[in-house]
């Protein structure tokens, strides 16, 4: 039986315009991610990891090439459709958390559902408890530690039950203890929900836990 990939990127190039020249950041990248698979993206600073992750997650568009997620070509979608898709089918966790400061933990977790005009109170509860923030559900982001913020962001990223979760250095702003708690949690939830996980990391220890590691050198896969 042929397995359907959750994500397929084909011949991606990305350049950015700089004044009167342009800079080629990614060249001819093709890759796929299987359902439930954990893929780590590694490479030196400036090699293009974050740029690649943004393209795979539909946060930005490649200059050429295609990104197909759950059978839909993100590069052929309007910005409006893409925005909806990001709320419903794609989870994203950033190094710097990106929580909404005026919303509580619970409201942040509910946010992707509210955009889709859905309510799943039991799922929200289950996720808030899974990230061990039941006692902090009414706190605002500025009242939380870094680890608590990132745990909130993980619950939010999973609340719409996406088939794939992207994380850009999710433990980069955390101390060792919080980093390992956040990673353990992410891996537990990945298994529970059978979510594919694509993580950009500098941490070889974290990459070791991955099913597969992809390395970028100067914008190319090696
Ligand atoms: N919007 C942009 N405009 C111009 N250049 C950009 C833009 N975004 C990224 N770049 C350039 O693309 C290259 C790759 O950046 P990217 O952030 O993807 O690297 P990275 O591998 O994630 O690095 P780090 O590990 O330091 O976060 C860098 O040279 C960066 O300056």
Automatic annotation (TrEMBL):
Residues 7-222 form the ABC transporter domain. SUPFAM superfamilies: P-loop containing nucleoside triphosphate hydrolases. The keyword Chaperone does not apply. PROSITE patterns: ABC_TRANSPORTER_2. It comes from the Bacteria. GO terms for molecular function: ATP binding. Keywords: ATP-binding, Nucleotide-binding, Transport. The keyword Transport applies. InterPro entries: AAA+_ATPase (IPR003593), ABC_transporter-like_ATP-bd (IPR003439), ABC_transpr_LolD-like (IPR015854), MacB-like_ATP-bd (IPR017911), P-loop_NTPase (IPR027417). PANTHER family: IMPORT ATP-BINDING PROTEIN. This is ABC transporter ATP-binding protein. It comes from Marinicella sediminis.
């Amino acid at each position: 039986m042929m397995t359907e990939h959750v994500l397929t990127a084909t011949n991606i190039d990305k350049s950015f315009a700089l004044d009167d020249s342009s800079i080629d950041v990614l060249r001819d990248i093709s890759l796929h991610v299987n359902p439930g698979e954990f893929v780590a993206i590694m490479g030196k600073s400036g090699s293009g990891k974050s740029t690649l992750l943004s393209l795979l997650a539909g946060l930005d568009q490649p200059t050429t090439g295609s990104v197909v997620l759950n059978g839909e070509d993100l590069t052929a979608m309007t910005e409006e459709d893409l925005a909806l898709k990001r709320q419903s089918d794609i989870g994203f966790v950033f190094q710097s958390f990106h929580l909404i400061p005026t919303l509580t933990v619970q409201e942040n977790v509910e946010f992707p559902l509210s955009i889709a005009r859905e309510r799943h109170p039991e799922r929200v509860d289950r996720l808030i408890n899974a990230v061990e923030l039941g006692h902090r559900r009414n706190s605002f982001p500025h009242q939380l530690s870094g680890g608590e913020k990132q745990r909130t962001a993980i619950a939010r990223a999973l609340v719409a039950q996406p088939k794939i979760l992207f994380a850009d250095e999710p433990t980069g702003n955390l101390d060792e203890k919080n980093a390992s708690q956040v990673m353990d949690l992410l891996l537990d939830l990945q298994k529970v929900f059978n979510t594919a996980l694509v993580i950009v990391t500098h941490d070889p220890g974290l990459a070791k836990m991955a099913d597969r590691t992809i390395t970028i050198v100067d914008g190319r896969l090696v």
